[in-house]
Amino acid sequence: MLREKSSNLLTMKTAITTFLILILGFGPAQMPGQAQFTANMVDVRQGTERNYFVQSDGTRYRYDFEEGGSKGIVIVDPLAERTAILFPEEEKVHFTGLMSSTSLMNDPFQSFRNMQKNYTEKKVGTEKLLGFDAEKLELYADDQKIFTAWYSDKLGFLLKMINHMAENTYMELRNIKERDVDATLYDIPEDYVEVDKRMRPIIPEPPPPESWETIEATIPLKGDFSRGDQLTFKVPESKNYKIILKNQTTEPAKIVRIAMRDGKELSFNEQGPLSYRTHRLFKDESVTKTYSWQSGDDKIIQVHEGKLHIEIVPEE
C-alpha cells in the first residue's frame, strides 16, 4: 500500500506491497453482480503470517489491514475505474486510476490482465475448494511453474494462491461468508483530506498565465521569480548544467522548461516529455537536476504558479 510519511507507514507499505505482488493478477477481473461476501485473507511469506479482512458487494471490494501499529484500507471500484487508498489515523485518502501502477500494485484482480502479457497461463480444470467451485490456474515462465491459483467465479475472487518460487509462501481465504455487505463501507468519509502519492494535500493548479513577462538572463543565474515570469537564456557552451529550484513560500510553485534551437522548439525525443520538463514544488521543497546542454541552444523557463528561487550554474 502507499506509505510515504512516517517510518510506520513505510513499514506497512513494504509489508502490504510485498503481499500484493505475490498475488498480482492471478485470477480473472471481478465482474459486476457477483456474490457479496466477507472473508479473512491469510498471507504467508516464508512462514511469516499476516492477516487481512476482505469485503465485497459483488462489484466493489475492500481490504482492511493493520501493519506496524497502523491501519490501512484499500477500496477498489472497477465500474468507476478508481482505487482509493485510505489512511484512517490521519484521515487522508489517495485516489488513483484503476490501471495506474499504484492501483495495479494494490489490486490483484485488475493486475491479472497485465500479468498475462508476461506469463503463460494454463487452465488445469475445476476443483472444489472451501465449499466453492474454483477454476485452477497455473502461470509459467517458459517451462517453469511460478504460481498456482484457484479462482471462484461466484465470488469473483481468488480462493487460494501458491508461490512456487518461495518456500512456504501462499495466500488463501478463510471463513468465507456469503452475506449482504453494507454499501457505506465503500464511501469515503467527507472529512478525509485528499493527498497525492507523496502524501501532500491536493491543491488545484491555476490555469497558465494569460501573458508572460520575458526576462533575458545569462548563466550563471540566481534569483527569485514569480508566476508569469519567463526566463530566456542562451547556452554558452556544451557541458552539464545544474538547475536548483527551491520553494521558500507556503503555496505551491511550478515551472516548465522549453528548449529551442534555431528558433524552433526541440522534438519530444531531444528535450523530453512535458512531464519530464515540469516541476511543481510544495512548501519548503527543493529539487536539483543536472542536464547536458548544447552550445547555442536557447532555453526558456516559465513560472506557471507561485514563486520559486531558481539557480542555474555550470557543473564543474
Keywords:
Jelly Rolls; 4 helices; 2 domains; mainly beta; twelve-stranded mixed β-sheet; six-stranded mixed β-sheet; disordered N terminus; elongated; 10% helix; outer membrane lipoprotein receptor (LolB), chain A; 316 residues
Structure notes:
- By secondary structure, this protein is mostly beta strands.
- The protein folds into 2 domains: 7-194, outer membrane lipoprotein receptor (LolB), chain A, CATH 2.50.20.10; 213-314, Sandwich (Jelly Rolls).
- 10% of the residues lie in helices and 49% in strands.
- It has helices at 7-23, 101-106, 111-115, 268-271, and strands at 37-45, 48-56, 61-67, 70-77, 82-87, 92-97, 120-129, 132-141, 144-152, 157-163, 170-178, 193-194, 213-216, 221-226, 229-234, 239-246, 253-261, 264-265, 278-281, 286-293, 298-305, 307-314.
- A 12-stranded mixed beta sheet has the order 7-8-9-10-11-1-2-3-4-5-6-12.
- It is elongated.
End-to-end gap: 41 Å
Q: What is the molecular shape? A: elongated
The figure for the number of domains is: 2
CATH topology of the largest domain: outer membrane lipoprotein receptor (LolB), chain A
By DSSP, the count of extended strands is 22
Question: Which ranges are low-confidence, i.e. pLDDT below 50, for 5 or more consecutive residues?
Answer: 1-32
Content of β-strand? over 45%
Strand order of the largest sheet: 7-8-9-10-11-1-2-3-4-5-6-12
Write the layout of secondary structure elements.
Elements: H1 7-23, E1 37-45, E2 48-56, E3 61-67, E4 70-77, E5 82-87, E6 92-97, H2 101-106, H3 111-115, E7 120-129, E8 132-141, E9 144-152, E10 157-163, E11 170-178, E12 193-194, E13 213-216, E14 221-226, E15 229-234, E16 239-246, E17 253-261, E18 264-265, H4 268-271, E19 278-281, E20 286-293, E21 298-305, E22 307-314
Parallel strand pairs: 6-12, 13-15
Antiparallel strand pairs: 1-2, 1-11, 2-3, 3-4, 4-5, 5-6, 7-8, 8-9, 9-10, 10-11, 14-22, 15-21, 16-20, 16-22, 17-18, 17-19, 17-21
